[in-house]
User: What shape does this take?
Amino acid sequence: MLNFDNKPKNALSNKKKVAYVSFIAGALPNYQFKINFKGLKNFKRVVSSTLTYGKAFMDESWYYNIKTLCILLFLGNVAYQFAAYFSGLLSSEFYLVLLSADKSGYFKLLIKSVFIVLICAFLLALNNFLSGSIQAKARTILTMYTQENYIKKNVLNTLNFQKKIDNPDQRITQDIDKLSASFMNVITKTIISPAVIIYYSIRTWLITGYYGPLSIYLYFIIGSVFSILLVPIVASKIYNLEKAEGFFRNQHVKIRDSAEEISFMGGEDNANKEVNKYMKALYFYQKTVVIFTFPIYSPLSYAIIGIAVFAGFYDDKNPSEQANIISKSSFMSMYLIFSFTQVLETASEFAKLVGYSVRITQLWDELEKINLAVNTGYIKKSPDNIIEMNNLEIATPAGTTLISNLTLKIETGQNLLITGPNGCGKTSIIRALVGIWKPTEGNVYLPFKNGVPDLYILPQQNMLVNGSLADQITYPERLSNIAMSNDFNNKMVKIIQTVGLSHLLKPEFFAKIVTDDQVYSYETEYDDESTFNVKYSFTTWQNILSPGEQQKLSLARIFYRAPRYAILDESTSSLDIKSEETIYTELIKMNVTLISISHRKSLEKFHRSILNIEQHGRFSIDSN
Assistant: This one.
């Protein structure tokens, strides 16, 4: 059963209160969101980053500084307030000319009203355009700033492995978008509203007397007190709502990625019940946000006008003048109330922005910690251009020792096969070699080429990308950085043939799958129309290629790069023995020294030594 309580009923430490939301794995603890007005510095930090980070639009041909757009939006809102004032007086002027049967004045006023309405429409459209432009730029700036610090070597994997920050993808793709959508309007209203309130307070006083604005002020002072008290609560609810959104989305991603397995095992009913648990948690937090953002509204202006009328303030006026005054005073007091209401709504919206800002800055803080903690000083350049591990000890983040006192030299041409039971630490050796996991002891010596390790790694999971066959083979190198030539095309064809994917070069293979929704459409930077330059989305590649074909395409990257050393982590597990033998034979002919992680006995003949990883840090090395 889901526990929807934001706070556990049992006593907890004042320093670390824990909110438990029961999901599929029982009670999942997360630090409870707590905010006070010091949390405003998070919002200030986000705004500051938006206004100062300039890399996002350096290449844009029509460059408008976001600060300039903000100033234009502010001026546009000021102009709209003036236009709205004259527009609001039109009804009182119409009452006057209609009740006095002033035909000439009526037509003049009609032309005037059309002109004012057109100005209002233009200013409203202009402000919407400026607001939309600022939103798009702010989102782009914040997203690129975050991604620049997130998608970095040793940071991307560490953040997702440690799982200290929930759903970083949601924070980047959704929270930033929601914050960008409204933060400029909040700032603009905050700046303009005081001036508007002062002006309409004076105008209301002149028409209704002091009691008119005084009544409105008293009413909204009480409302403001409640609003101020609710800001931390609403921000906390928004934070928890966004977290629940992320867990709900991730559950659907899991169902999508495991659809076949669920169908094989008849797990549809179970999957439906589990995802409904997440939906109920999401509903709970969504409901609390709605409750705490219920709007405040009052027909206060009509009460103020009624007092003035029944008190005889306008008895000396004729009926048409009374109608004019009543309409004008109604507009003035209503606009004053509207301005106050906007302030309260802005406070509610600001609470949401603080919630989004906290989630974004939490991600920034964690990325900064990881960046500062990254230390690859244990990786050194090998003077002999070989791979050497010296007294290496590797442990999990929890402190469990996986490898202890590993000293090993892998000479050029001396292929190494790494075996062992699941979870013993085979892949952890690769993580240590590339700097993802820092060993607790020891050093690693690697061959370098052009300032980077001359080592290529194929992970267990096949990595397909948006683009063509050529894009798949050259990844992570971009085709835009490669000079297109006949030699390049011939090299691509030869590699594709070597790994046994010649059928992918036939036009009829692609003819059967080409549809508008499958072709990955973006502007190509070369004119070659050969089949290996036809671009598709990565999902299309996943759909049209079998697991074995995907592995062959991944292996083609080694033939393209021709590194001194290559690490293959279960990279032939989906291949038949003959294809596996062909590919290993060709790689050895290219003088690529191979380090393979596999359980297949068929691979032993291609390796000079076998490193067998055992439990509790033990290992053995056998010659083959």
Remarks:
- The chain has a mean pLDDT of 75.
